[in-house]
Amino acid sequence: KIMMKILPINITPLLKTYQNTALPLAAVSCGTHEEDIVKYCINHFIQLRYHRNRKMLDFWHSRYSDWYCIEVQNTLRNDFFNICNLSILEIIKNAIDQNLYVYTIVNEFYIPERNRYQKEYYPHDILIYGYNEDGVIALGYNDRLVLSPVTVPYSMFIEAVQSVQHLFFIDFFTYASYNAYTINMKQIECYLKDYIYSENSDYKYKFMNTDSICSYGINAIFEMFHHEKTEFESNGNLDFRNFDCYYEHKRMMQLRIQSVGQILGDDQYNVEYAKIKNDAFIIRNLALKAKKLKELKIIEDIENRIKNNVEQEIVLLSELLLKISQNI
After folding, report:
1. What is the distance, to the nearest Å, from the Cα of residue 271 to the centroid of all Cα atoms in its chain?
2. 184 conformational bin, left if phi > 0, alpha if psi -120 to 50, beta if neither
3. pLDDT at residue 194 above 90?
4. CB 136 within 8 A of CB 154
5. Is the distance from CB of 109 to CB of 121 less than 8 angstroms?
6. Is the pLDDT of residue 82 over 90?
7. Which of 252, 272, 281 is nearest to 312 (CA)?
């Protein structure tokens, strides 16, 4: 029996701030698939959402299992393993042998190179994309906040799974090669409007009602910053991920504007948006500096920069929306 198999992986996926986006994208954006996944992201990762309970700014998107670029072939829950007395390791190995990626929940107390390793109980998602004689090969953020592979010894992986049995599940998935991937101008127009006018995009899913716990679009940015400033003034805390996501949104937006510009035959918006993206990168780095130095004046500088950045973005995207509506 083969004692090793490793599936292709992209350790620099297009979106990296949060694992629940980075890990699926890392699995399906390899080689010839990458161009398709870029188109998928251009069409979908447009709107922003700020979750008030979690104090988290993120792209508005569904769970990865609903993305049409991903085919989830099976999902197994913890009770299935218990009832059928199945070996989790053998099932994972068999899935990888069939070129399926494995997405699951583990206790990071047992995962080497994690902040919580051998320190505290911490359930977190992980992507498994290979195995060898030493253990399973997984992808996630290490203790230096870098998305990187790690080999988890088999005995430790079993502990990591068994200690989160009440949460445990496994998704087996692959790239959905049978779908068509094109730039959808109508969808981009729709989500850009939601973003600019701070509309709740959950109306597209009528069973969802998140008005009371989330803000959207431009409002999400300002609400995120208001919370971060208040926290910083109170206790010096700052969640850098929110500012990283802010920059990632601008980087994704410029990629979108490049593609739209090619379709419209107009590169003007791409050139102008580059400055907005670069300013967002400065804001991101200032947030990192403020977190380290604990200086309130840096936060005040960020506040002014965000205000100017957003104002410029609204003007440019409003002009782009008009251009798109005239050409679809």
Report:
1. 26
2. beta
3. yes
4. yes
5. yes
6. no
7. 272
